[in-house]
């Protein structure tokens, strides 16, 4: 059994930063790394900006600013050697199979042979992400799908592969339940796993309904929020929170991997979402999506 004391989160986007904060709040030594931005003098600017925004984000009292401040910032080029010291490395970069594969190939070069490895993918095949790596690396790897925002969402889906050592899955499950306050569900490696497959289908149906009836996003949020016992953020605010580019990756993943024609039709990227993406409006991360955030 590995005692999880130090963790590294790779990718300081919407999820990576919030997962890192959740780990820091749980008292773990936490590293947060991102890529080196092009033409940028500060090589750690992406991760540093992410931490800054966490400290500013509401509701602030739920995070201890001193704990969030303790997160160690780094980048994929200069700081990878630190990964040899940590007990769990979680990848949370953009939802793209080949980018995740390339990053894990780099991680393998510094891996200490013991630590837990995981991906926060929303639904790309966990087997495919890890396929080309060595057997022992694969044995320590699984999908760990946190939901957004990880501070509040209790669900954590674990997706072991056929190579994952049962002891690794058990270790993560126990740690997530006892230290991270999660309710763990172990799922199979199907496109978008369980909750996302169902959740995105519901959103797709709403877009189809909006083609027939003149609902605005605010009306949909009103109807699909507290009235149905769901949070106020409901449909469109959730899309803005998730990121419209990430949502588009997620529906594409089902479209490309389902063998069910009805499902392939149902998971077309909604025109309104594609239009916003083309305009660079990706939701809260660009301060503009279905709603504007000033
Ligand atoms: P994001 O777009 O906010 O951040 C993506 C991160 O990937 C950025 O920090 C970026 O610098 C990095 N990145 C982009 N291109 C890269 C490259 N070529 N090489 C290395 N790094 C690169 O994405 P996110 O919403 O944080 O999603 C991260 C992961 O978590 C994805 O797999 C996503 O599917 C999953 N996820 C997202 C949500 C959500 O609500 N957004 C929920 C659950 C899981």
TrEMBL record:
Transmembrane segments: none annotated. Residues 193-292 form the 3-hydroxyacyl-CoA dehydrogenase C-terminal domain. Residues 6-189 form the 3-hydroxyacyl-CoA dehydrogenase NAD binding domain. It comes from the Bacteria. Belongs to the 3-hydroxyacyl-CoA dehydrogenase family. This is 3-hydroxyacyl-CoA dehydrogenase. The lineage of its organism: Bacteria, Bacillati, Bacillota, Bacilli, Bacillales. The chain holds residues 1 to 294 of 776 of the full protein.
């Amino acid at each position: 059994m590995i005692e999880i004391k130090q963790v590294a989160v790779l990718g300081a986007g919407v999820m990576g930063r919030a997962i890192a904060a959740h780990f820091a709040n749980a008292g773990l030594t936490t590293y947060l790394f991102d890529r080196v931005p092009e033409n940028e003098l500060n090589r750690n600017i992406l991760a540093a900006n992410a931490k800054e925004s966490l400290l500013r984000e509401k509701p602030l009292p739920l995070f201890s600013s001193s704990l969030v401040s303790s997160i160690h910032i780094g980048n994929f080029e200069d700081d990878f050697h630190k990964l040899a010291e940590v007990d769990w490395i979680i990848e949370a970069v953009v939802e793209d199979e080949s980018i995740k594969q390339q990053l894990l190939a780099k991680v393998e070069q510094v891996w200490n042979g013991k630590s837990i490895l995981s991906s926060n993918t929303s639904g790309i095949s966990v087997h495919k992400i890890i396929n080309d790596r060595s057997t022992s690396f694969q044995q320590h790897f699984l999908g760990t799908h946190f939901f957004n925002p990880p501070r509040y969402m209790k669900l954590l889906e674990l997706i072991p592969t056929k190579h994952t050592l049962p002891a690794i899955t058990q270790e993560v499950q126990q740690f997530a339940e006892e230290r991270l306050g999660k309710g763990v569900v172990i799922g199979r490696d199907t496109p978008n796993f369980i909750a996302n497959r169902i959740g995105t289908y519901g959103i797709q149906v709403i877009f189809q309904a909006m083609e027939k009836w003149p609902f605005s996003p605010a009306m949909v949020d009103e109807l699909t929020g507290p009235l149905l016992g769901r949070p106020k953020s409901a449909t469109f605010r959730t899309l803005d929170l998730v990121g419209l580019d990430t949502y588009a990756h997620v529906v594409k993943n089902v479209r490309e991997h389902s063998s069910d024609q009805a499902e392939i039709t149902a998971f077309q990227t909604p025109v309104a979402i594609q239009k916003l993406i083309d305009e660079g409006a990706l939701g809260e991360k660009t301060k503009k999506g279905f709603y504007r955030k000033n």
